[in-house]
Structure formats: C-alpha cells, structure tokens
Amino acid sequence: MREQRGTETMLGPFRVLDLTDDKGFYCGKVLGDLGADVIKIEPPGGDPARSIGPFYKDISEPEKSLYWWAYNTSKRGITLNIETADGQEIFKRLVKTADVILESLAPGYMDKLGLGYSALSKINPGLVMTSITPFGQTGPYRDWKGPDIVGCCLGGQTYVTGDADRPPCRISFPQACLHGGVHAAGGTLAALRYRELSGEGQYVDVSLQEAFVWALQGPIQYWDLLKHNMVRTGISRSYYISPRYPIRMMRFGYPCKDGHVAFMVAGGLIAAVSMPAMVGWMAEERMLGAFEPMKDWGYDEWLMRDPISMSREDVDAEEDTLARFFATKTRAELYEQALKRRIILYPSNTTEDLVENIQLKERKFYVEVEHPELGQTITYVGAPYKMTETPWRISSRAPHIGEHNQEIYEHELGLSKEEMRLLKEARVI
Amino acid sequence: MKRRRALEGVKIADFGWVVTGPAAAKFGANLGAEVIRIESNTRPDILRFAPPAKDGELGMNRSAMFTLYNDSKLGITLNMRMTQAREVARRMIYNWADVIVDGLVPGVMKSWGLDYETLKKEKPELIHIATTMQGQTGPYSRMPGHGQVGAQLAGFSHVTGWPDREPAIPLQAYTDFVTFPHVVTALIAALIYRDRTGRGQYIDVSQFESSLQFLAPPIMDYMINGRVMMRMGNRSTHAAPHAVYRCLGEDRWCAIAVFTDEEWENFSKVIGNPGWTRDPRFATFRGRKENEGELNALVEEWTVNHSAEEVMGCMQGAGVPAGVAASGQDLVADPQLNHRGTHVILEHPEIGPHIYQPPPYQLSRTPAELLMPAPCIGQHNEYILKDVLGMSDEEVADLIAAGGLE
After folding, report:
1. Residues B201 and B314 in one domain
2. Domains of chain A, CATH where assigned
3. Which residues lie closer than 8 Å to B235 by C-beta, 6 or more apart?
4. In Å, how far are B37, B93, B398 from B402, measured between CA atoms?
5. How far apart are CA A150 and CA A133, in angstroms?
6. How close are the terminal C-alpha atoms of chain B, in Å?
7. Disulfide check for A253: which of A133, A235, A385, A402 has CB 3.0–4.6 Å away?
C-alpha cells in the first residue's frame, strides 16, 4: 500500500527501491529529482562507489565523495544485506510497498538470491523491475566486465575520438553508465506508464553498451551504406561523402589567447550565417589574411561555397588566418563578440568556465542543497529541464550510510529497537 | 491479438529539428505513440542532406543520418509561412496531439500563434516540450548555433584527449545524445502526471543545461576544491593498467583495465607471467600508477602481437575487463549487439534495406518496435490531412493551391 506523498511532483506517488551500484545511480536520481520516493539500498558499511573521488575538500571518506553526492540526490538511504535470508525477507516486505526496483548486479544474480523478476512479480504483480548491466541479461558478452572504458570501446565512441597519431581515447570523465542511467529511466517510465493504465508490471533489461551506441552518430551508418569506417581526427572534422569526393579535413576548434574556441569555416548554411560577420570583424581589425577576396561576400555567396572543392592549401591558409586572429583574444572576448555579431563561435569551456557562465547564471541553473552535517549549503548542477507545472527539484542531499534505517525499518515496517540491534549485529543491516 | 504498447494512445506532433526533438519523438514512436513529423520542402532538416547517403549521392530522401532518428513516424510537409498551413498545424494540435516536441528558435512558435500560452487556453492538457541549445531565456538564448558545438560549450572537449595536446572533440553532436534521452524521461513523466491529473505543461530543455549532469562531479570539484579537470588520455585515477593498447594489424586497438589485485594476477597469467609483472614497480597498484608510462609500454609489447579480438577474449575469459575499440564495421558485426537485436533492417523506398536502431532496453511485456522506415519528405501528406485530420478533398485541394504543403 503506497503512501500518498502528494501529487505536486510528476512521480510523487511512486516508490523506487534502488539497489544499483555506480553502474545505475543516475537512473534513481532522474526519478528522485522528478519526485519519486527513492530508497537507496546499500550493503552494510556502504556502497564501494563511495570511494570514487573527487572528495569534499579532498577528504577521502565515504560521506565525502562528490561522485556519490552528485548522483544520489533526492534519495533516502538504508543498509541491507540481501545475500542473507533475513535480508531477503525484509527486502520482500519492502517490495510489497514499491512500484519500481532498480538493480545492477551480474546477470542472473538476483534470480540466484530468489529475488529475480519472476519471484518478485509474484509478490507484487504491478512491479516494474529494471536491470542495468554492461551488456544486458543475455548474449555472448553477458558475463563480461564492463567498466567505463570497456563500454566506450565496445560502444564505438573510443575508435572515433582523439588525435590520429595517438591511441584512440575516451572522454576522461566516465560517461557510459550515465547514458545507461538516463536511458534506463526512460525505459522504466515507459513501463510505469503502462502499469498505471493496465495494472501490469514488467521487466526492463538495459545494456550500457547499447545505451552508449546511442551516443554515437555515423559509424554504423557509414559502414552500412558505404562500407567506410569513420576514424578519429582530433580537433578537426572530416566529411566523407563518397569515393568520388576528396575527404576534406577542417578544423573545428582553434587555440586562442587563453584556451580554445569552437569554430568552423566550411560552407553552406553554417558559413552563410557566420562568415559575413566574422569576415567583417576581421576586416575592422585589419586581419583579413586569406579572406581578403571574400570581404564583400554576403549570405548567398557563403551559402554556395563548397569546401569540398577547395584545395588543401586554401583550407590551410584560411585556418591559419583564423588562428592568428583568435590568438589575439580570450575565450570571453570572443564569445561576447560572437553573441553581438551573431557568429557561430563558442568557447571550449573548462569546468571553471561552466561555473562562471553568464547564461547559466541568468537562468539560475545551479541550485543550493542543504548539508546540515556540514552546516552549509553546497551548490549542485541543476535541472536538465525547466517545467512549468511540476518543477524538477533536489529534495535532499545524497543519504549517509544507513541514514534512514530508523525511519524505514522502525517507523514504517514496525521493527522493534531490539530487532534492529540483532540485525545490525548480524550484519543484515 | 494486438500487442500492447507502453505509450499506447499517445499522439506526438514532432516539430523537432536535427537530433534532440526527433530522436525523442522516435523513441516515443518505438514505445507505441503515434508520431507525425512536420517538415517543409522550403526548409528541409539539414540532416536530410548529411552524409552518408545512398550510393554516396546526397538527396532529400537518401541520408542514413536522417533516417536513424525518424523511423516509425508519419511525415507531412507544411509551409508555415502560409496561413492555411498554420491552420492545419493548429488543427493537428487542438484536435489530435497530446504532446508537441519543438526544436525551433525561441519566438518562432509564437510568431505562428502556436506558443504554449495560447495553446493551453484551449487545451490545458497539452504537453509542450521545447528544445534549444541554451534555453528559452537568457542573454544567449538566441545565439546561432548547432549541435556540434555542444561538446565544446558544455565542457566535454576540454576533458577529452591528451594533456600535452589540444582538446579532442567527441564525434558529432554529443550533447544532443545526452539531451534527447532526458527529453524522453520528461515526456513520459509528463504523460504519467497528465494521466493522473489532466494537466499538461511546458518544458524548456536547454541542451547545454541537460548535458552538465554528465560532468557534475568535476564541476563540483571546481566549486569546492578549486580544481579544474584536465583531459588525461585513457588514464583512470583508480586503475592501472588502464589504457587503449595497439594490437596486431592496421589501426587496431583494445582497452585493458585492471582495478583489483585479483585482476592484476589474472592479467599477468594471461600474458604468461613475465618477470616484470613481479617487479616491485608493478606488483602493486601504487607502483603501477607511479610507473604508468613504462607499464603501458610493457603491456603493449604483448598486445601488438595479438589481434584486438584475441586480447579482449583472453582477458575477459580470465575475468579482466577488456574491449576492442570498435569501428563501424566492428559494431555492425558485434556478436553481442546482434544478439540483442540492435541492428534492425527496414526497407526504405529510396535507400533500400538498411540499419535502424531500437531503444537500448528490452521491455518484457511491451517491447519497443520499429514499425516503418523514416518517411520520405511529405510522404504521408494525403493520409494525414484526410484520414487523421478529417479534411475534405476540397480543403486539401485549396491547401495545395495556396502552397501550404511546400
């Protein structure tokens, strides 16, 4: 029997039991920030992911992991050892009260514990159970290990990223489980919507590899249609149309006085929008260089320009001119002018830039969250979407280890203090 | 018996552009919603002319980049500069749609009389999702841009590549791929809320904002500790070896990642327990981290003599994480993806049979389905106008004569 927690959030009436490790944290966070009652269940002593840094003031302790903080917002926390008979019994009592279960154990493991979907759906036929694993529940790779770099490689992203003369590389901050998490939330919500209409729950099997393939655009399509493999090109882009056309590599980023900016010369619509103003600006500063012949070009001339038909020397000359121009200005100066003059030019932001960013500040993007144990609020990354009726909200910081044991076990399930003590000593909670 | 669908009965009007909106709408279609993609011949989606194209010849209906995000939808062309076309759009929204997904520059929907404030007066249960690069408000909301700058704007480029080199840029429009699954969650959660309360709402999605959750810990690290995260190739702060190693053959690579002592022992066993693995410089995690450059060179001395597949198979077989850096060709042939049904062949009228992709999860009771290939431009004009919107033959003829379907 669910507690009615109010209907002012999208997912307020729903309870989620979140058994995931770092492979699945983000899913529960998405649901929790939309109002669901998410209960994070950790092994007694805490989830090993609490040792993932960075840490608050570099204090490497389980309650100070910024990774844990960032991805477990809006969740209450209890400890429970589901490998014990007592733990499984308690878990099943909680399952009766839940709408969703999230887990990321090795395929087949929950079944082995008697806690797989077939067993739990008997207790709660409306249950939605979502499993998040590196490769999914079945298949030749199902038992393989899948940390982020493996997901990036087998998901195709690594091969097409990085400098051509170095090994291919991943984005240095792990992404695969985050893509998996947000997709898992989508699949879970689809199942939940169906449950609300039909009364029937179901099982949702999420593959991190497949989720990361959705963060890729092109390699599969290029091989499928043209038997061509896209390759890594560092800070440049190359566009392959067919064997009949030369592959033209063009810079998509340039160094500037204090970092890098995103800019591409090219042709077509993008050039038509940007280049007249860009060339005009360079003319003002008498730095036209290779663009001297184009100083009177307008929208139409740039629209018709086809970079594929340019020679390598001409492309290099243009890129050289731009590099010299950008070298005289900072990211901030270039971005401000780009806005004024309506040029498609953007900074390559560092985390410092992201925090100082004017647009984000104006939109009040970053949010304050109470940390009573520190006696202060901490600033968190804010809403992925701004909704008029049911605002996204971080309802609480990530839980401490066993923070809500009393609230859930004693007050809700009615366990006595004596039972709690016994379970604690037996390392069930 | 007709199979039940998760988003049965839901109708989505897709005014999206390029990736974010259309991809979210496509997922909706795969989950059971009816989706109409609204386009125009006078201003076709730029993806329609993006390579790769059938036989290397670009054309309106030949791009696999476009089709990837637009299967399972009906397609109509409406020239929104024509009043009559706007009337059709209004009719579609008031009489048919539950959800609008719009990828337009802020202000455009309003100029058509289709802004949320107007629409909700007649239809309070409407869900309107607007996706842009930087949001509907703020000094940079109308800055011209496109999805490909997102990776740099949102900070991903800066942390990709090598510390002694310029940043590398993730392929294509990375922030679109972070944003669109967030749009999917907002869309379905809004439907759940509406089913319960009858109330719709407006959802303002900024790609820039949506994407920053994927860098939250490094952002907080700067805010709290003043540390600016720098790119570090393929290294990890808590594993070694942890890199992508050259293998036998031309441009073939495999990642190997060792996180525990047990994995280190198994790794050493796989490569034949050479003496160097017992050297104090490499026998512990800290030693391996301190001597990581040398470690990687030693590992690569082994991997260069084996194919990437062999490296992956041997390592995973021994419980050591490893993965081939998969090219497009590898992905198409991947046995696990094929087992999962990730590559779905649909026959497109101009491209012929080619690969589409379902959402990355399997629902046991209401599985996602790819019903039909992406529409050719305006392919379903007549069906939509007459059968879906109930327009008469005369109304349709007038619309055509006025240029409304261009």
Report:
1. no
2. 15-214+366-425 (3.40.50.10540), 234-356 (3.30.1540)
3. A172, B242, B243, B292
4. 21, 21, 6
5. 13
6. 40
7. A235
Q: Which residues of B touch A219 (CB under 8 A)?
A: 171, 327-328, 331
| B307 lies in the same domain as B357 | no
| A277 shares contact with chain B (CB less than 8 Å) | no
What is the ipTM for the molecules in this complex? 0.97
pLDDT (tens digit, 9 = 90+) per residue, A286-310? 999 999 999 999 999 999 988 878 8
Is-catalytic flag, B176?
yes
Cβ–Cβ of B234/A384 closer than 8 Å? no
Query: Total structural domains in chain B?
Result: 2
Nearest neighbour of A221 by CB, restricted to B52, B148, B189: B52
Set of chain A residues whose Cβ sits within 8 Å of the Cβ of B168: 161-163, 169, 232, 234-235
Quick check: B132 contacting A, CB < 8 Å?
no
B258 within a domain of the structure (yes/no): yes
B6 contacts in chain A (CB < 8 Å) = 190-191, 193-194
Please judge whether A381 and B213 are an interchain contact, meaning their C-beta atoms are less than 8 angstroms apart: yes
Question: CA-CA distance, A307 to A320, in Å (whole number)?
Answer: 16
Q: What is the pLDDT confidence band of residue A248, given thresholds at 50, 70 and 90?
A: confident
Domain boundary among B309, B333, B357: B333
B205 shares its domain with B276? no
Q: What is the rounded distance in angstroms from the CA atom of residue A328 to the CA atom of residue A386?
A: 38
Nearest CA in chain B to A236: B169
User: Of B283, B308, B333, at which residue does a domain stop?
Assistant: B333
Residue B43 shares a structural domain with residue B155: yes
Determine which one of B176, B195, B279, B334 is catalytic.
Answer: B176
A6 touches chain B (CB under 8 A): no
Q: How confident is the model at residue A348 (pLDDT cuts 50, 70, 90)?
A: very high
**In this structure, how many other beta carbons lie within 10 angstroms of the beta carbon of residue A112?**
11
Q: Flag whether pLDDT at A4 surpasses 70.
A: no
Are residues B25 and B12 in contact, defined by beta-carbon separation less than 8 angstroms? yes
Residues B328 and B345 in one domain: no
Same domain, B75 and B194: yes
A325 Cβ contact list (under 8 Å, min separation 6) = A282, A285, A287, A289
Choose among B191, B203, B217: nearest Cβ to A54: B217
pLDDT band at A7 (very low <50, low <70, confident <90, very high): low
Residue A372 Cα, gap to closest chain B Cα (Å): 16
Residue type, A197: L
Check which CATH number belongs to the domain holding B309 and give it: 3.30.1540.10
CATH number for the domain harbouring residue B105: 3.40.50.10540
Q: Is residue B116 located within the same domain as residue B257?
A: no
Beta bridge partners of A40: A18, A77
| Same domain flag for B210 and B352 | yes
Closest CA to A413 of A10, A13, A17: A17
Is B313 domain-assigned?
yes
- The pLDDT value recorded for residue A2 is 41
B282 lies in which domain range? 242-333
Q: Does B106 touch chain A (CB under 8 A)?
A: no
Task: Sort out which chain A residues have CB atoms less than 8 A from B184's CB and list them.
Answer: 183, 186, 189
Nearest to B152 among A53, A192, A348 (CB): A348
Spatial separation of the C-alpha atoms in residues A346 and B145, rounded to whole Å? 9
Report if residue B203 sits inside a domain.
yes
Tens-place pLDDT, residues B221-243 = 999 999 999 999 999 999 999 99
Asked if A298 is an interface residue toward chain B (Cβ–Cβ < 8 A), one would say no
In angstroms, the first-to-last Cα distance of chain A is 23
- In the block, tokens 């079945």 appear at A138
Asked if B200 and A389 come within 8 Å (Cβ–Cβ), the reply is yes
Domain assignment present for residue B280? The answer is yes
A197: which chain B residues are within 8 Å (Cβ-Cβ)? 8, 195
